[in-house]
Amino acid sequence: MKKILYIISFIFLLGCSEDFIDRNPFGDIDKDQALSTYSKLESSTNGLYVYLMRTDLYGAFIPISGSAKGDDLIRNTAAETDRYESELTMTFFPTSTASGLWSNAYQAITSANNVINAIDANGFDPQNEPQSSIDNLKGEALTIRALMHFNLVNFFSQHYTFSDATLEEGADGNGGHLGVPYKFNSEIEEPARNTLKEVYDYIITDLENAISLLENTKGCVYISQTTAKALLARVALYKEDWALAAKMADEVIKSNRYNLLDVDTYTNYWSLKRENGSESIFEINMDLSDGNFPGRGEDIGGIYLGYEDLGAPVGLLGMYEAGDIRTSVIKDNGADGYSIYKYPGDGVNKSVNNTKVIRFSEMYLIRAESNLRASTSVGDTPLNDFNLIRNKRGASELSSIDAEIILNERQLEFAFEGLRLFDLARYKKDIDRPEIAQKPLVAYPDKSFAYPISEYEMRNNQNMEQTGGY
Amino acid sequence: MKLKSDRNAFFEKKSIRKLYRVMRLTFLLFVIGLLQVSASGYSQKKSITISSERIELAKLFEEVEKKSDYKFFFNNDDVDASVITSVKASNADVYSVLDEALSGLPYMYKVLDDNLIFVHRKSDVNSLIQQSITVTGTIIDNTGEPLPGVNVFDKAAPSNGVITGIDGSYSLRLSNSDAVIVFSYIGFETQEVNAAGRTNVSVTLMPDTKELDDVVVVGYGVQRREALTSSVSTVQGKDLQKVSSSSFDKALQGNTAGVVVSSAVGNPGSYAEVVIRGSGSINASNSPLYIVDGVPVLTGRVGDWADDSRSNFLSSLNSHDIENVTIMKDAAATAIYGSRASNGVIIITTKSGKQGKTKVSFNVEKGVSTLTNAKNKNANSEDLVKYFQDASRNAGELYDPNGNYADWYDPMVDQGLYFPNSLADTNFDWWDAYTQDGTYDNYNVNISGGDEKTNFFVSAGYLNQEGTVVGTSFDRFSGRVNLNHQLNKYIKIGNNTQISRSKQNYVYDGWAWANPVAASFWTLPFYSSHTEDGEYNHDLGGSNGNYNVLHINDVSSMQNRTVSIVNSTYVELAITDNLKAKSVFGLDWKDVDDDQYFDPSAANASSWGGGYYAVNNKYYKWNISNTLTYNKIFNGVHSLNVLVGQEAREYNNWWLYAGASKIDPDIPNLDGTSDEQEVGGSRIENSGISYFSNASYSFDSRYYLGASIRRDASSKFGSDNKWATFSSVSLGYTLSNEDFFNVSWINNLKFRASYGETGNSGIDSYASKGLYQADKYNSNLALYPKQIENNMMRWESAKTTNVGVDLMLFNRITGTVEYYWRNTHDLLVDAEISQTSGQSSILVNSGEILNEGLEVALSSQNIKGSNFTWTTDINFTLPSSEIISLGDDMEEMSNGSYQKRRIGGNYTEWNLFQFAGVNPDNGMALWYDENGEKTENYGDAVREYCGSPEPTLYGSMTNTINFKGIELSFMFYGVTGNEVMFSERIYREHDGSDVGASSSGPVTEYVAQNYWTTPGQITDVPKPIAYNDTQSNEWVSSRWLEDGSYLRLKTLKLGYTLPKKWIEKAFINNANIYFQGTNLLTWSNVSGLDPEVGTNGYSYNAVPNARTFIFGVNLDF
């Protein structure tokens, strides 16, 4: 009998260790595990690009909104939906506008922070990979963190040299007004908005760190050292730090990694999937089979050519010289208006072209503008750089240029790619659209250059301040 | 006092153990038998009127027998019945009659327990009593079959007993020829007979129908119903079989208070939601825990593509194998299941063999099913053409006010929206084409029996059901073996195993054009299903996307197949008389294949070349529990029962997915595909461990106390909150067992109260983890965050209070009235967070919901004669729910597009734009704006709360009538107070928005006959306008909301047990034929197909529940 009692008590006490109730997922992966080895960190870094694919980021919103809020785009007569209506009319309410950009950008930022912080904590298994590989991952993550914050301030803040303190408290022409919260972790917090200057400083620090860590080993669908430099050139341009902008643009130009397109290669470039060594410094690989591919048709190609919601204004078309190859991506569809073929699809599917984030031609125009504004000639003279682009595009060379001419050239070169709004802002221009009766549509300065912070964020972050004017 | 300690003897083994060499269970039930005798021991006092100066004694006895239930017996040598006597009695009892009649005669009488009156000579009495005699006899059951193993003993000296032999005979020596002999046998009513000097006493034992009620299966054991302090209902297997359905859960509807069963989709094999005492969780499960023979089993819909039509895991269980179902509702009953208990627990016990002759039982059921409700059909062609023409004319007036709108409707014009009268030449009934008479075939055979050591129950069943909508069917093969064996004095082992294989053919559900129900609504009657050549017609005027679902069903197929194994093995060890150990190992294995073949010629696949998609899911759950039970009675009045136990369990789900397009129809499987091939697969697991204990104590059958505690750990919860403790206490007081209680018509009066905390762990296996999701970028593996970790995440916790009264009145009416409050707090809600954290919300424990309600269950034996009985059972529930908190600062949150939750409101409420009818002046739809004014502008309409899909009352009434072998029973089930949205009306009452040049959609008959045509006309159907953009048929509109009340004749069964003499020669013991109907009649005002919708109150082209008529035969050998 005693024996039986022993057996019974044994069964009872056998119990189960805590291991038994610790179960890890199979399809998904535990966060700690996702950051535990070099190869996992590499995958987690790849995951950052997946965010960039999304409709709310480079899948559609960033390039389209930056163009539609400017004067690159109009409502097409063939439009099937009223997508981007508020961007075209420049009327925004905190109810929903641009909330996807906000949330997705912070998803990418916090995910990048996980990678950066995991590498800094040095608690992962390097799997015998050289330090340079690890540095590269950190450099990619730092660059994406900087790029996302840069997009956030571009869209949610007035530009760097904004000085109307009645609209934006603290605006002093030197980034004294509201930027966005700069996140260095993935904690649940309620952060206040940093000043724009602070955000720019952090962006520049991140990019400079990235440049020191990155190599030029990966292709154009990844971040490499020249990508970080090119982005820093753009950041410095917006900050009007001419020296830094010229220096960075010059270094990219001299990297010998990229070549300018000419009249023979230009049109085809846009329908190519990807071409390393061409004009793409950084493009987002858009692969239909990826689980995160934007809803088919919602992406940039789908909006321009599928739904045909947006088209090119006649006025813009008139600014190109005859023979300018850049008009080859704008086609007259008769009554349906002018359609945009920068993302033309592959003949069957409109949603397969990689979104161009930054192109080589921008480096020449940045170097030209910076040298012109600062009266320097880092690398080459502004006129030479300017005319090189004109020449490659099949347009006539000019004998002299000024800032306004560069501004116009930038519109011709980067139309529909999402840069126009920020150029208009830093040039302190009104926004006008020939097709809209109201002149100007928006007089500079105006709150609508920046988006309001969503109601959702305002409701759930006590420290969040609304963008000036909303 | 003696009687009461007998009740307690339930637990006491030692004192009478030697009597029982059979089974412990026999003993247990025997004691219960004793209880019943005491309960029904009140005598019938019939008053007799008899008056005669001269009457023969024999004649007097005859008269008394006629006027009462008494029977006389006497020895003819002893008593001379021809003696003349006189009697004069008016409304007197039998005693006074006999006292008077026998006064002066040398006779005495004695009234025996079984209404026998023994008349004997005065002088004989003493000698009779002194004599010790041997009594022999044979015990048979009501079918005339001898009963072996019956306990026969002297009531005054229970240790003096024997057991009947294989032929039912016994021989018992009594020390006293006047002794009372007790005959008791499991499953039969115990009888007591006064030997009264006879040497041969043969009795017929009657099956005891009440007996099973008296022991209730509860968590990890059984309990006497009498000692229950918790809220527990039981449903007998035979009551479940009154519903002709593939799964038993649907049959629970109406059978017990506090339980809502809703079948949103009525195709064969489909799933029913079972909610006990209301939904109390927003993001975790609201489904109860199901336990079959001690094994927690999988529930819900099979497979990953779980749309509503998909088959139900519970339909893998054959309901003919079910002995009974226990539904445990309050915390006192369920707290022993800890973190899985909040939604209640349903325990299914399958049948087991009984000692005795091996029984073979056959059951065959064959029947047909039709739709419950076919009203509100589509308009016929003639009405529809007129409607279209009017819609066109109205559009012309609206869009072309200058009057040049002839193009819109003029029959002379070919362009525009011209709808010629000739369209009405064809009037095809698509409803008729897409629906059919279903069939129901159910064959069952079981063999059961056993000896002293071993018993068995073996069954096989085949069910085949064809649905009322084309393309739907279900079949199931099932086999079961239940075995129990007593190894020796100490050890008992057993195993219950069911293996089944079920197969369901299903069709598209919801808004799909390929859904036959939706297609019947959306296809124009101007076109037939087949052309004149007998080919499928693919030109349906553009309506329903030109999908001819008959063709799609013909060439394509969708099917799921489930193999299920549920096994439970136990070993039980009697360590001492009072201490018992038991280990149960259970496993539940389900293998589900879900295959979809799209033929390239099918309208829903032709654009992409068809394809094949297959998912295989394997589920494996195991569970092991070890318990120790201690029972003891102290000093005859203190009864103690203590259980301690430990449990571990694990759940695994593996799945594989493969699919591809562009298929060769001659190779209709994955191998025949050539494009867009995709594969996937993964695995989910979770686990838990628990320690638990419960104790119950009763004093003198008057005071009861129960308590339970469980410590639970689950892998699902946050690392800082893995463990939690749940507990309950309960009290009972049987006032009617008090000595001072003296109300003759109250036979039982018991008060109960319980309070306890239980948990709800029905969340995703990895809900608390910080997760990265796998994807790819540039053909490389990419990982990115999917979910923020919440290490603090813990169980939703419910505090349940239950008070109840159990009653028995006039020995006829039993009832239970209960009130419950279940306050679920730590509700998992999606809390909004700053999006700068990289996520928008996090699942946190912060909400609170109160469910409360009144439950009443009454059972009345209206008539109980030997040939005629009539029982009425009524139960109803008045439930309510209130949201107390939705977490930090949240006043309301949306629940889908049509419903919202708000603090102070119901669990969920409709929140819709308010339809204000039709403007009689111009036929336009009206809405209420924010000032409560009517407006034609939909943009000004405001959303308002407008009722809840939860009923305020539901219940049922069942009548059971037995008359000479004929049994009639029928149940009405009703629901009221709920608002239901028939969203299919959005398209069926499109007000012209579906009238266009290339394709148009039909409207209902009601619309076509009631739409606004003339100024001043009062109607609720707006005027039709082609290309209508008034949004009058807007989705989020109260126009589609209807009173969901209904009353249904849920079941009707008319059976006849053939007289024994007819069947004896065929060696048949029992033959029963019956007709049975399910969902026979429905009273409801809803315009949808079926008022029974899911608990979310939302109907969308679902296959309605079927009305089933079957004819069945039961044969026992």
Describe this structure in words.
The complex is a heterodimer of chains A (470) and B (1117). Chain A is mainly α and 470 residues long. Chain A contains 18 helices and seven strands. In chain A, the strands form three sheets. Chain A has a two-stranded antiparallel ribbon. In chain A, helix 9 runs antiparallel to helix 10 (242-253), helix 10 (242-253) runs antiparallel to helix 14 and helix 14 (360-374) packs antiparallel against helix 16. Chain A is globular. Chain B is globular. With 1117 residues, chain B is mainly beta. In chain B, the strands form twelve sheets. Chain B has a 22-stranded antiparallel beta barrel. Chain B has 17 helices and 55 strands. Chain B starts with a helix and ends with a strand. Classes of the chains: A mainly alpha (470), B mainly beta (1117). At the A-B interface, helix 1, strand 1, helix 2, helix 3 and helix 6 of A face strand 30, strand 31, strand 35 and strand 36 of B.
Biggest sheet overview of chain B: 22 strands, antiparallel, barrel
Annotation field: number of helices of chain B? 17
Unreliable sequence segments of chain B: 1-44, 124-129
Helix-and-strand structural type of chain B: mainly beta
Global mean pLDDT of chain A: 90
Look at the helices and sheets of chain A and give the structural class. Answer: mainly alpha
**Tally of strands of chain B:** 55
Which blocks of ≥5 consecutive residues of chain A have pLDDT under 50? none
Intertermini distance of chain B = 45 Å
Query: Based on DSSP secondary structure assignment, what is the total number of beta strands of chain A?
Result: 7
Regarding quaternary structure, how should these chains be classified?
Answer: heterodimer
What percentage of amino acids of chain B are in beta strands? over 45%
- The coarse silhouette of chain A is globular
N/C terminus separation of chain A: 82 Å
Rg from Cα of chain B: 35 Å
Most residues in contact, chain pair and counts: A-B, 66 and 55 residues
Most strands sheet of chain A: 2 strands, antiparallel
In which range does the helix fraction of chain B lie? 10-25%
